[in-house]
Amino acid sequence: MPTKSALSSIFKAYDVRGIVPEELNTERAVAIGAGFAHFARKAEGATRLIVGRDMRESGFELSRAVIAGACSQGAHVIDIGLCSTDLLYFATGHLDAPGVMLTASHNPANYNGLKFCLAKARPIGQQSGLKEIRDYGEGFLARGDKADAKPQDVEEIDLLEAFAKHVRSFINANALEAFSIVADTANGMGGLVAPAVFKGLPPHLEVLFGELDGTFPNHPADPIQAKNLVALIARILEVHADVGLAFDGDADRVFLVDEKGEALSGSTTTAIVAKELLRKNPGATVLYNCICSKAVAEVIAESGGIGVRTRVGHSFIKAVMAQTGAVFGGEHSGHYYFRDNFGADSGIIAALVVLEVLSNAKVSLHELRVPFERYCDSGEINTVVKDTAASIAFVSKHYEHRGAAIDFLDGLTADFGSWWFNLRPSNTEPLLRLNVETHDAPSCKARVEEVRALIGASDAQTD
User: Fold this and answer.
1) 8 A C-beta contact, residue 167 and residue 91
2) Among residues 232, 257, 282, which one ends one of the domains?
3) Does a structural domain hold residue 171?
4) What are the DSSP E strand ranges found in 164-212?
5) Alpha helices in 289-421 (DSSP H)
6) In terms of residue numbers, what domain contains 418?
7) Is the pLDDT of residue 305 over 50?
8) Would residue 168 count as lying in a domain?
9) Average model confidence (pLDDT) across the chain
10) Which candidate in 63, 84, 105, 303 is catalytic?
């Protein structure tokens, strides 16, 4: 008899993620599909559901299982097959139906997972539906319910060209220069999506590791890790490319690399895109999460926009996008959200916007980035602790009378003017995530050591 933990262990704050088949298998995927269909019908009367998947070896079998589970609840499933996560989001807006994406993003090959959203890419998170999906799925397993999909219940649709056209609509394609671009798609879904988007555009696109292969034979599909950019940087320098693009596995995130082989942070890309969209939408609202560089807020203000600071995570940002009508939102992790993309994130839209800015500026990407990079940051530093809440309280108490502006929007942020840090707990592990920003590298290193020493002291006091 399945226990409560059968699904609880793989349901995270924003999605489902687990090792196949030990944690996520076809039996559980059927139950989750049934739970999603039940929730979608209850939440918005949906009788149609969209299912997409990335290139992972377990994806086809698991997607069949999800479809069977959804059909058991009376849903009509639109199967869009292999796609990127941002293509799935587009599909939920384009077809006005809820959707689920089978992907584990940048995780290793033995993982898979599910990302859910309602129609028009409205997010489903822990507090907005994931619990209901999990609980219904647990009941489905406990009852031993069976599921099957009849041919008439499933419709296959190819939306790649429609998505590519949608992405290109964010720019004036005729304004693009004939850049030389190298894209490392890491054998992920960027290998399908990027060529379709760039087809017919002036830039010349060369794709590295474009074959769809969920075993990731060349390197992990995690572009935030510098070691996974080595091949891309080498190729950029070899062919004297103007721009590099590094995709993650499900291709919803893209990191840019300049002609010197130096990667742009998510904050820098956020600032560049924010300035451009505020040029096109004067006075609009732009979101940025609480670990973005201070430069982002400064650029938004300088560009006449209204900046709104948010928690980290797509479900929070999408909710604030809807509440504020923001034209754009960015995260330091490389997620970029667009009002005209149903409020959903798309790295390749952000990349095209940067290319348009670059074309109009008539400068190199290395020159373009300089005014947006005003500070030195530590990157995210993870520390295992016994009690995340106790550690945050300890660090907060230490700084509360030392001239810092302190808030708890997402974990602890302490801003001293000349430097700031954010310390927030992981949603899935006993970790604290530390981000520090100062004016220069030596002071950044010193402040990191200072805060980490406090974390260590707090942990030592925790029994």
Assistant:
1) no
2) 257
3) no
4) 180-184, 204-208
5) 294-302, 314-324, 347-361, 365-369, 388-399
6) 376-461
7) yes
8) no
9) 95
10) 105
